[in-house]
Amino acid sequence: MKHILTLLTALLLALPAALNAAELPPKKPNVIVILADDLGFSDLGCYGGEIETPHLDKLAAGGFRFSQFYNTAKCHSSRISLLTGRYPYQAGNVSLQRSVTVPEVLGAAGYFTAMTGKWHLKEQPTDFGFQRYFGHLSGSCNYFKGDDTFRLNGKPWPVPEDGFYTTVANVDYGVKFLGEARAEKKPWFLYVAFNAPHAPLQPREQDYKKYLGRYDAGWDVLRAARMKKQEQLGLFGQKLEPCPRPDHIPAWDKLTPEQRSWESRRMAAYAGLVDRMDQEIGRLLENVRAAGELDNTFVLFVSDNGASPYDRRNKGKNLEPSDPSTTWTLGTGWAWMCNSPFRFYKQNQFEGGVATPAIMHWPQGLKAKAGAITDAPSHLIDVLPTLAEVSGASVPTAWPGRELAPLGGVSLGPVLAGDTLAPRPLYFLYNTDRSLREGDWKLTSFQSNPWELYYLAEDRTELHDLASQKPEVRDRLAKQWFQMAKEVDMAPPARRTPVLETAKPVSHPEWTGYEPEQGGKSKKDRKNKSATAPLKSKGN
To answer: Does 120 qualify as catalytic in the annotation?
Structure first.
């Protein structure tokens, strides 16, 4: 009897605490959104790459990856969509005047909001809901010297003459801001927009030397290796048909020894930038883990577009890229390799331009099996609705000084629960490149060339153009694209002109020329005469 009374007493004493705990709402998750700049689809280890990215790979193993997550193929427009949940023109373009932002939505729900890194839009982050900001307002900057657009909480911030490196500084300030959030005892939202691996390719010396010699085999061999690894990872659930090397990129063994040396070195520099970004992400996540917060922190990692093919301002080719005076770029051959297994590049609306590696991690909130891969077609416009749902925040329909357009995205809540999304069209536009995805059909145009049509369920690498075989599908999707361009995105008339009736050669004056393989043509000659199409699509 005495034992029973003791037990009952203990239960009665514990009951109020248990009832109070049951009445408490679940603790709001913290949120980290990490955006890489010009990162190719296959650059991470968990997406098939040979670059060492153990921290992101671990994040994927404990969370899940997307095989069909989309961006806008361009730096500034992807940032608009990520922050606003809308297509770029729909949001008011770089002014954001037809939208509210993630920090404004979460800030109204009691979150501490902070950002580090690249802004690339009008005004400053502190004008759009970020309570803390460190970084540069420009579209790119010198990794060691920065530029005059650096700001700290809205005020000019002079870049130190020595000991500065943007990728490291972004995480230094990210950690600092998290400390301030914890002092205020608020849930927090941290947006880290790395400059890496955007040009200029200026890695730290140790990160560069780590990869010297690893790319001597060239892009043909390494692209094949990446695709083999992607197949082993089960990234697409099927073996994809390899995309042939385009005509504007020569075979590696056709390059001169001098060219091969230069190309190998600049890819090593790029790899060093990606490696350092992963190291710093690991440092940030370790800070969160040490604070006991990682289990209830929603983490999203994405890229703003595919790898960049543009060969610009290669100053100091004979110097070490850790010299701040150098300005190396990646070039077209390596961009093709980085975007394995897809075609085309940054700015193009083919999969090589718009498909991003995307990782979600949230131990307390994800119902999907750890390490899973989802093929649910998703987009940066879905980030704001998703974060609003997981945080319990309301998305406003009105905001002082702005006329809000409807949201373009949807919450990825079903995907977090291990389910899929209801079908909806996804719309793409940058300059004169355009596309529409509806279900497994994708309609695409390169710089206003005639529409091409692909059935992605069987042809994810976009090799078999079905436009002439399925004119009814082509025309239906084309009509839908123009309707969405006008009524949803509110794109200006100059961006809604009809596509060409006759294809012009597929080229760009800033794609790498590889002059010895093109008869010694100068850069001026390449601008005046287009290259041949990158590949002859089957089914035309």
So the answer is: yes
